[in-house]
Amino acid sequence: xxxKLENIILGVTDVxxxxxxxxxxxxxxxDVDHQASDDFRVVQVTPVGSGCSVTFGVxxxxxxxxxxxxLHLVVEDIEAAxxxxxxxxxxxxxxxxxxxxxxxxxxxxxxxxxxFMSYVYLNDPDGNSWHVQEAHHKGAEG
Length: 142
Fold this sequence. Notes:
This protein is mostly beta strands and 142 residues long. It has helices at 15-25, 78-87; strands at 7-9, 29-37, 40-46, 53-58, 71-75, 92-99, 104-107, 118-123, 129-134. It folds into two domains: 7-58, 2,3-Dihydroxybiphenyl 1,2-Dioxygenase, domain 1 (Roll), CATH 3.10.180; 71-134, 2,3-Dihydroxybiphenyl 1,2-Dioxygenase, domain 1. The protein is 15% helix and 38% strand. The two termini are 29 Å apart.
């Protein structure tokens, strides 16, 4: 049996601001923006290439605004992803990598582009946090 995670509900304080951030700043695809009443609105967006969507709105059960931490977006090229984020004006940590020698984070991309070693950290306007993580880089030793 497959168990597929296909939707995550985020708490946000301003639906229009969140919609703009996810569609314009992060480039997610807008799937749904439906408002049945002043007490119910659902916005669903999906990262390009992802099978899992993100939903936020009014009258949804879910997390408090800013309470969702550590969501991961996986990319093949962390440098290209960072350049895209920077070009869209997204504030982030910059590229960091896990330094095996020190056991901590160091500036820049992992020199060998090993899977799950390079990151960019960012927050949405409410403080929900995202980790952009590199895996399956072409030419990487993995």
